[in-house]
Automatic annotation (TrEMBL), chain B:
Species for this entry: Qipengyuania citrea
Source lineage: Bacteria, Pseudomonadati, Pseudomonadota, Alphaproteobacteria, Sphingomonadales
Protein name according to UniProt: DUF934 domain-containing protein
InterPro entries the record matches: UCP030820
TrEMBL record, chain C:
Pfam families cross-referenced by the UniProt entry: DUF2849
Organism: Qipengyuania citrea
Record lineage: Bacteria, Pseudomonadati, Pseudomonadota, Alphaproteobacteria, Sphingomonadales
Entry protein name: DUF2849 domain-containing protein
Amino acid sequence: MYKYDQYDQAMVDARVEEFRDQARRRLEGKLTEDQFKPLRLMNGLYLQLHAYMLRVAIPYGTLNSQQMHALADIADKYDRGYGHFTTRQNIQYNWIKLEDAGDILADLAKVEMHAIQTSGNCIRNISSDHFAGATADEVVDPRPYAELLRQWSSFHPEFSYLPRKFKIAVIASDTDRAAMRLHDIGIQIVENDAGELGAAFYVGGGMGRTPMIAPCINPFVPLDRLVTYAEACLRVYNRYGRRDNKYKARIKILVHEMGAEEYTRQVEAEYAHLLEEGVEPPFAELERIRTYFEDPLFEAGAGEEIDRSDPDFAVWVDRNTVAHKETGYVSAVISLKPVGGIPGDATAEQMRLMADLAKDYSFDELRVMHTQNIVLPHVRKADLHALWTALDEAGLGSPNLDTVEDIIACPGLDYCSLANARSIPIAQRISERFAANGKTGTLGELKLKISGCINACGHHHAGHIGILGVDRKGVENYQLLLGGSEAQDASLAKITGPGFSEDGIVDAVETVTTVFERERQDGERFLDTYRRIGMNPFKEALYG
Amino acid sequence: MAETLRYRDDQPVDHPAVTVDAFVDQSNAQAVRIEPGDDTRELLPHLQRLALVEVNFPAFGDGRGYSSARMLREAGYEGELRAVGDVLVDQLAYMRRCGFDAFEPDQQFDMDDVKAAFERWPEVYQNAADDRTPIWTKRHP
Amino acid sequence: MRLLTGNDLKTGAVTWWTGSDWSIHVEDAADVAGSEDEIARREEAARRVNSPYAVDAELQDGSPRPSHIKERVRALGPTVRPDLTLKPADPEIGNWVI
């Protein structure tokens, strides 16, 4: 993975000092809260429901054991012993004091980490495929391109006061594991017929109040012009994105209102202009970054055999390990979704264990999934049993990847001042219901996503089953949606009808799975059956 | 309005800054004020008679002025480029990078804070409108 | 009744105006109806509170209970982590919030 040189380190160190100075001026009263707020947001520091919340960046979801240990230490030293992994591959701490924030950023800088631009109206953490570098289906590892864009977007002098937040995802396979089409800019590295690599740019996707799937505005930008094209996209947005209404300020609204064709025309014009201005880094820089992402030293001829005599282990292998490009290896998924648990939360102790396991079994590398689990990308099949035993003991061994128990949930009203309803208790009760009725396995792949408000941080629009918490005259109420997908077959979930109470929504989810079991054909997933039979059978079962 | 900070050697222009529409119409105007909603590129055919461009920031969160400034420098404008309005000391470094060389903030700056702001960044990642060498160029000389 | 609430500037803790001071316990909160804007302005200018605002509440068993569930979660702590709330040992607290 990428390692800072003295330049990268100088930048994060300078940022720590800048923030210390800003926090001091705030505490002394030289900055009002209105003036300080955008500055602290650009360092990931929110004023949230219970305290300050700090969102630490995990660039394209990749970190090593030293960094994971540092995250654990921060949880213990400055917070309340745990952290929350998010739907953008970051980590959040919920109980931060402003007077500690500078020290926390300094501790992060020591391990090449930061909270730069994890909030605010600027370019946010660039996300990527959590199986990058391990999967056989990528044309190249997308992460060097994400790293190049990370550096380009950090402290960008022109694009730090955008109309609204800006989220970029980079993938390099036809299978979209990063919800690329639901980002402000999604990039897929592709190979053309001549075997050359280029970047397909998708611009104007997003969730929130008005979910939209990004159109492809350029199917092949040469890789030695990647930054120039991104800059053109951002400049058109900075100049013309709406600033009159916070809920209409994302680029998806601009692309939609202007039309993708006109937006593309303006970008291409700006791109042609910027090509004359020398904004692109030298290609040697991309090659330099790529050297950090070469394959680890895989053991040649590693064994393919797995001893499946332990039935619990066998279930975990079947559900939570994913094929690897190298013989004898898999990627292993550590579930942060124990039945009845808080999705995405990990204690400091669990973080330390995951760090040590990564060191022992995965070439010292971990990934954060946007679905709030952790990946050990390169595990020898021969090591799986030892790994699983350790995970199982620590409550990290739930064999539920991509099942109804693998719920994505935002923090909701328990933690977030934007929320209208609690999402975590719904996730807990649903996972408990399905663990109890024993159907998790038979239902198969079922992506259930819960958001506590219309901002959709739980990605409910992209759930096979989505749940949206709303406030109905001061009482929490839950809308049920069906048929969303965040993959390359992207679709937006549709609402079933009137909302449900807290008890009602758990029953409703069970009801729709019953309809699925009744109607399913030939190994269909829930999503496939829904797409084939439509909403009506589900509506009938729900509302009679 | 507070004191203007100026980082140029030449004499400040004494002309009143007119709107973009007025400037394009008046052949003897030398100073223009760009509002966030203006299309800065309308000025590009007239750069040779421009000695002062003011870019208004009615609210510091409206970042359109950064693009306006940078585009003017890209087009070869070498006159004074002045950020006016709701400009905070924390924006100075980025503004300088976008080509601003004068600042007329609504609220007086603390000059110690100004010095700290301009000395904050030992390096820069990107090419912009200033003459700082980006990190990636330093890595591959 | 109206309660004035905000966050402690340094620690971020949720605080409630008691009539003379800021407390992390909503039970100590005073009715500020009629003077909420004045108190908020004064206290924020003195940096004794950050981002204050007023909320509706009713007296329940002699103690203020914010009318909106969001403010009750704010007053207490996350319902899913009783150990992290202000009343970890109180088994009835879930009912007070919800």
